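Title: Prediction job returns without error message
Component: structure pipeline
Severity: low
Priority: P3
Assignee: unassigned

Description:
Job completed but the reporter wants confirmation the result is attached to the right record. Sequence as submitted:
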Amino acid sequence: QGRMWAYTVGFTVLPHVGGFLGWFMNRKEIPVWYEKLKKPSWCPSRKIFPVAWTVLYTGMGYASYLIWNDLGGCSSKAVVPLGLYGAQLALNWAWPPFFFGARNMKLALIDILCLDGLAIGTMCSWYRINKVAALLLVPYLGWLAMATCLTIRIWKDNPEQKPGKSE
C-alpha cells in the first residue's frame, strides 16, 4: 500500500518536472521578449499560466498513474498508451525552449501541432482502458487548443526577423 502511494505521487509529480525546468530556463525571456510581442486581446494574463499548468500537469500525471496501474505497470499492454503519453509530454516540455529560448515561433508551432495530435491519440487510447483517466485529459486538450490558436496568432502577428536585418 505504501509503495502504491509512492507511485501515485511519482506519476502525478512527473509532468511538473519538465514544466518547472521549462519555466526556469526561460523565465528571463518572458519579461524581456514575450511581453513585447503583439498578442490577441483574448491572450490569458501571464499570471494565469502557472496556475493553469499546475492544475493540468497534476490531472494528466494522476491520469497516467491510473493507466499504468490498470495495465499492471510497465507491461506490454502499456507500451502504446504510455508511449503516446510520454511522447506528448516530451513535446509539451519542448515547446517553451523552442518558443522562448530559441524564439523560433515556427518550430514552436510545428511542435504544438504535433503535440495536439499526440494528446488526442493519448486520450483516445486511454478511453478504452480508464474513462476517468481519459476525461482528466479534457481540460488539457482545451488548454492546448487555446495555446495552439495563441501560438498561431503570435506567429502570424510577429514576423520573425531575418538574420542580419536591424530590429
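Comment from assignee: result matches the submitted record. The helical segments are 2-26, 29-32, 48-70, 79-101, 105-127, 131-136, 138-157.
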